[in-house]
Write a structure and sequence with these properties.
This is Secreted protein. The chain has helices spanning about 5-40, 65-80, 115-120, 180-205, 215-220, 230-235, 240-254, and strands spanning about 50-55, 85-90, 100-105, 125-130, 140-145, 145-150, 155-165, 175-180, 210-215, 225-230. By secondary structure, the protein is an alpha/beta fold.
Length: about 250
């Protein structure tokens, strides 16, 4: 074998080894990324999950708003990427606790009783004005001592929460998407899909509650979203009773 042939053979072998090592490295990184995603969403391979959908409050018939349908598609894609299975159920058809299966629950207190139960149990510091009568506070969020009013099509808010039941390591999370309008639910699911890696690095398996602001949805749809802040502490701290609030107000004014 001449030196030229030997060099060609060695170069081919080296190229093959590099290709194999590169493939192994990419596969390792892809698998690690997938495992982190599965851990954050509580969706190991072949696990089961629930998509709990609300009803369209503007319809007299059982129906789902088109923006909520878009939200379901976003969430179904996440579940599929994790190699898990999903069951879509309506808010009045779920009669089980939480923590056994990952749950994605979207809507508002006026259209999703399941979400109302979750918020009462795990977010006692949040109130949503579900008054059907028109008024400046209709649809407003109260989180702790702050109030966030709805300006349809201009400034709208949505709560994105990842919550776990107790401290059990194996407990599956519940993801809540509580928006002032249906388009804000889609904005929150899209935000989660885009930023889940950053959220996983920051929070790991811990619970969190984020308040998002959807800006000028009448022009930009669900795409322009700003993070107002992490409101986990305020959302999980029970609000004072109305009598205590009045006494506190009177004391501050005196």
């Amino acid at each position: 074998m001449t030196d030229d042939v030997r060099n060609i053979v060695l170069a081919a072998v080296a190229a093959g080894i590099c290709a194999v090592l590169g493939w192994m490295a990419r596969t390792y990184l892809w698998n690690r990324k997938l495992r982190r995603k599965q851990a954050f969403f509580g969706l190991p391979e072949n696990s089961e999950s629930l998509l709990v959908v609300n009803r369209d409050a503007a319809s007299s018939e059982p129906a789902v708003h088109r923006f909520d349908v878009f939200s379901l598609l976003e969430l179904a894609a996440i579940v599929k990427d994790c190699g898990a299975h999903v069951q879509v159920v309506t808010q009045d058809a779920v009669h089980q606790g939480f923590g056994e299966r990952t749950e994605f629950c979207l809507g508002a207190p006026g259209s999703n009783r399941r979400l109302v139960a979750h918020m009462a149990a795990m977010l006692p510091g949040v109130r949503v004005n579900a008054d059907p009568e028109a008024g400046p506070d209709r649809g407003a969020f109260q989180i702790g001592g702050e109030r966030y009013r709805l300006e349809p099509g201009v400034t709208e808010y949505v709560i994105l929460a990842r919550l776990t039941a107790g401290e059990r390591r194996e407990a599956r999370p519940v993801f809540l998407f509580c928006g002032q309008r249906a388009i804000t639910n889609q904005a929150a699911t899209r935000y989660l899909a885009r930023h889940h890696e950053r959220l996983a690095r920051k929070y790991g398996a811990r619970s969190f509650v984020l308040l998002l602001k959807v800006v000028n949805s009448q022009a930009y749809g669900p795409d322009v979203v700003e993070l107002v802040g992490d409101v986990t502490k305020a959302a999980q701290t029970p609000l004072p009773a109305p009598a205590a609030q009045k006494a506190q107000k009177a004391h501050s004014e005196s």
